[in-house]
Design goal:
Layout (H helix, E strand, L loop, with lengths): L2 E7 L2 E6 L21 H13 L12 H12 L7 H5 L3 E3 L6 E12 L5 E11 L3 E3 L1 H12 L2 E2 L1 H16 L3 E10 H4 L10 E8 H4 L1 H10 L6
Parallel strand pairs: 4-7
Antiparallel strand pairs: 1-2, 3-6, 4-5, 5-8, 8-9
Helix pairs in contact: 1-2, 4-5
Length: 223
Amino acid sequence: MKHETILPVNGHAETVAQSQKVHEPDAPTAAGEDKPYDPVLADLVRQMLVRLGEDPTREGLVRTPQRVARAMGFLTSGYHISLDEVVNDAIFQDDGEEMVLVRDIEFYSLCEHHMLPFFGKVHIAYVPNGKIIGLSKLARIADLYARRLQVQERLTNQIADALEQVLAPRGVAVVAEAVHFCMMMRGVQKQHSATLTRAMRGVFKSDAQLRREFMDAVGQRQG
């Protein structure tokens, strides 16, 4: 494996692995540390620690680059799976015409602007048009798009787009509520703010009564 030497910062010399091969650890020492990680990403984390003025060889940080690489691999795993793989043929013929709603689906994501977390819950509903989807797939679709660098507005619309693509329903409604660490830990530092986004498609957009029923059901009563 080739290495590129990085100039020392605060007395610590660093190297960057020039291989994309996923590293398989030999002897895990804690839960989760037996999972593979990207060694290039781990080396970049090590460089960041040095740039921040830390010593990546001290006891508390020795395994931090690998841990961060594993964590980022999981938190951005949505880039590496397709909608078809998530749905996995869990589409069924059905004559139902009433709203199907799964609410309070927890999600966790990373803001693409500062790579800080935002998290909350999403409510997903659709009105069938001859087909229904396994209920757990609604949560998995939310995770598919949440586990990427995101903005909440896009996340909400991507979930709605995905349901339209796989079901062609009469309507789709998605509401997401989240708190953003980029507004809490830095910047304006507002600890009690929350962001609400929504996407209404088909009959949820054209039928005010149905839209009201959905919003009431998820606790977003309209005046």
